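seq:
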Amino acid sequence: MTNKAINILIIDDHRLVADGLGLILSRLSNTVNITTLYSVRSALSDLVMLKQQSLILVDLNMPAMDGLSFLQSLSNRRVTVPVVVVSAVENRTEIKKVLQCGARGFIPKELSAAQMLEGVKRVLSGERYLPDHLAELLQVKTMSQQQIARNAETGMRISAESDYPQLRERQLDVLKLIQTGLSNSDIADILGVSESTVKSHVSTLFKAFGVSNRTACVKVGLESKLIDG
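struct:
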């Protein structure tokens, strides 16, 4: 990367996710300026600011106006800043739509921080970016009654009518940040807690969902609508 200032705008209606993405992108260089907004409309209200960006990352699925609407609005306003769509939705039809609407890349939220940075670097250098292949869907076991009982003993609120738990607010925060690809250390910095506390929350999530890795954990969260794409 050059020493020239890099202005990056992140648009995501989930503040924790947006802040997590900002933390990842701040590693690009010491000249990165991150702006975070939480709706497409707020971004479109300031065309001068938009045109000053080196790159825009926008979530695909947001209320009111989504990532596709944002791309179409930029085209109508003749804003030529490169845009990368970031989403947990890995549907080939949707990916094709965003590329046809002018997106310079598509980054699944399940990518690691290193992969995300590589994709952003390639777009900043003038290339298009799309991962070679989307992550394979993983088969996830549902919780057994014994798992439900164990979770109840540790204080987690479990719905008897559902295979999936209703997590505490802090554990949902951790789940959302896992979705962005952040490490335990980075999550701890954002939430203002110790890394060991984050590890404990991650372990609780794994046990509750019956999974052994972060990708599967995020998949359960998406399927159970505990987090959004």
